[in-house]
Amino acid sequence: ETVITVSPAALNFNAVAKNLDDVVTVPAGYSVSVLTALGDPIIAGTSAYANDGTDTDFASRIGDHGDALHFFGLNAAGERDYSASARGILVQNHENITETYLHPNGPTNLSSGPRPAAEAIKEIECHGLSFVEVKDDGTGKWSYVQNSAFNRRVTPNTATTFKGPVAGTDYLKTKYSPSGTAGRGTINNCANGYAAWGTIMTCEENWAGYFKRPSSGPEEDTANRSDREQTALARYGVRSSTGNYAWSSATPTQDIFTRWDARAGTGAATDDYRNEPNQFGWVVEIDPYNPGTTPRKRTALGRFGHEGAWVGKLTPGKKVAVYMGDDSRREYLYKFVSATNWDAADANASNRLAVGDKYLDNGTLYVAKFNADGTGNWLPLVFGQVPNRPATGGFPEYVFESQADILVNPRLAADAVGATPMDRPEWTAVNPVSGEVYLTLTNNNASNRPLNGTDAANPRHYNDPKGSSNQYGNPNGHIIRLREAGDDGAATGFAWDIYLFGADSADADANVNISGLTADNDFSSPDGLWFSRDQNAAGQINPLLWIQTDDGALTDRTNCMMLAALPGHVGDGSNVTITNKDSTGATAQQTTIAGAAATAATLKRFLVGPKQCEITGVDSTPDGRTLFVGIQHPGENGTYDAPGSNWPQSQSGTASGRPRSAVVVVKRDSGGIVGL
Ligand code: FEO
Ligand code: CA
Ligand code: CA
Ligand code: CA
């Protein structure tokens, strides 16, 4: 493929100023319109969304808290066409809910129950994914098709199949599936990836909090759980006294509610709910082009707080790599490498999930170790090669018993092999031309990573007076990137550097703004990360990197945002010296590492969202002329009308009504490629 550097290699729009307005702001010469929003009916016969808390049937509507998204093209005849830019299936994750807006007067008995069944059903069905046909009417105006046969909701109640090494093992045997091969649903779907054979790979992130399993008292139920189970539950944070929304308390009782209580009981796993938490924390592959197929949970990719799963650059005859962050403070970066070499003919296979079986059910899971000299190692998490995890935090030594054990508990295995704990690994993105891998490290704080816990890859510890809980630590986050040895996704070694450090450009401490950010491109807490499709303009551009933010230490002066970047390559920055300070302000530590600087030509703010939103989820049509962006939870704090949000109504000047998560379409008025 021919890649021609755009000349001049600069971002061709005027930066959007930071702001606290209750609208989506885009550069001059661009326009924004709402494509889908929470509650929109996507199945024939479903009523229009009233948006007053009375709506039901969310398994037939767009869910809440839209997160990662992906556009799968359709040709005029409605057939799969990866290059189509006028019609397609938009797939979106629905990570979570703002429960206040889903009921007429907010949730009933939220803190400890009993929850009314009708409320719990609504909240459960607002999670999962939506698949909806979207089209351009021929003039650049996009809308969704309510009655399309491609439309589908996948929710926490949808039947799933387990595949790979853990399928059929004791870890997955439940009341629902005594054989351990079937599961129910997917939850807290955060970021994603897509496979070249035309499927979505959706990721289960903060699933642990949905389960009731107190970490003390009689309901902790230590008598009926092995030390191994208790160690794993603690390491994965299954410790809520009620579960996020107390669904297990819902009455009248149904199994779809009770399952959220991870009780051990006194009998076999098939008579209790102890293994329900093992149903979640996976990468789930779904075929958008065939809504009748059952989602497949790919256990070979491991179970953790999966943020995303981005496939590396594919090379025929080489193995397929998938890069995955585990988003919690001090968690790890993982890579899966297929056992099978890539055959480009598989991109057009008709049984897409069978192709997924070929590449995603057999392979090796690795975890990253970042060395101080700018090199790194992928450490294999393979039974027989992973030492026992030493006794830690009151839990005894953990002895791995099988590969399935390692794949259910990669966090324990990664601890044991000495992987590098990171400042909250969020999205991964792969430069489609060079194959370099980028990873957002959204932030960390002093209680999780104190001054003496810094390392070359997580080097910062400073005070941000606006940072509240992040005050000391790395309140603004950074973006790290790596290049595989030999540019081969199967490599066990890599080179890395730090691409960007988040900062408030107004911070008077020069040590904070290490990347030289200005008012036009400063940001905090990077999260969403995506390279534009290399098919843009028939491959005649270098891909842009899009960076999205989530909360962070700039929210006093701006809502969350999206920036565009021309990032260069691993190793093209210069050394920077970082001075870390202790809480007295005294210099306590200095490190010099390779890092890059941003310039006005290589990093610019493109979009600012409405109040209390996160910007997350981005894709474009293959021609690069239509950009889809996810606006997640405007008015998240639970109040609408000032000081809360009335978005998207406020986008067209109506400052009333409940806010809704939505996908917006961003177009350039000239019809040109977005951003260039
Ligand atoms: Fe769902 Fe880590 O963001
Ligand atoms: Ca995220
Ligand atoms: Ca985040
Ligand atoms: Ca969010």
TrEMBL record:
It comes from the Bacteria. Residues 444-473, 634-661 are annotated as: Disordered. The chain holds residues 146 to 821 of 821 of the full protein. It comes from Aurantiacibacter xanthus. This is PhoX family phosphatase. Residues 646-655 have a biased composition (Polar residues). Transmembrane segments: none annotated.
